[in-house]
Amino acid sequence: MLTKRIIPCLDIKNGRTVKGVNFVDLRDAGDPVELAKQYANVGADELVFLDISATLEARATTLDMVIRVAEQVNIPFTVGGGISSIEHVDALLKCGADKVSINSSAVKRPDLVNELANKFGSQCVVVAIDAKQIDGNWKVHLAGGSIPTDMDLFEWAKEVEQRGAGEILFTSMDHDGTKNGFANEALAKLSESLNIPIIASGGAGNVLHFVDTFKEGKADAALAASVFHFGEIPIPDLKKELKEHHIEIRL
User: Fold this and answer.
1) Of 202, 76, 197, whose CA–CA distance to 132 is shortest?
2) Which of 25, 89, 105, 193 could make a disulfide contact with 84, Cβ separation 3.0–4.6 Å?
């Protein structure tokens, strides 16, 4: 059985780590490189960095941050935000990133998933999907959750798997920052319909939420931000607790 993964997520804006609720009301959570180093030291399995204000001007800042993170950590890390070309991915991987996360750019041009998988391998390509329930149906949203689409979460996830995505990072916008637990029903449905790993995101508030998303949501990894950034759930304690619930985890 593959071990489950715990992944702190660092949302980056203007070179700083920030965190909000339901994608708004952002507050500062520290220097991303320092946080990355701390997380690697306390047992995080991977890291995700999302440049939420990604623009062409911010690209140089992101590349510099990737170089500095790669110098400090010995665990895999994923970088996302504003990625829309093979050239940009090539630059990020050369700076030290292990994977890239694409979201809106994949929806706008689905062939990008095929191109990146063919060029760099599926193991480098994470497709992030932000979705929200509208009239009982999970609908994909773009641009940091600000633009709704008619696309169905499950159909889109299946399509990107077929196009070569190596992992799905699913964030429930309804759960994001609420600390009420992950969207386990949707996660279980994704997990049962796909053959690639699913990363759960949005809603972590306590240790049992992680237990539930691995057991009920059948997630392969759980991603969280504020509960880690603000010291509410220390990663070593979380992992010990998961072990006690008979969840395979790397201590």
Assistant:
1) 202
2) 105
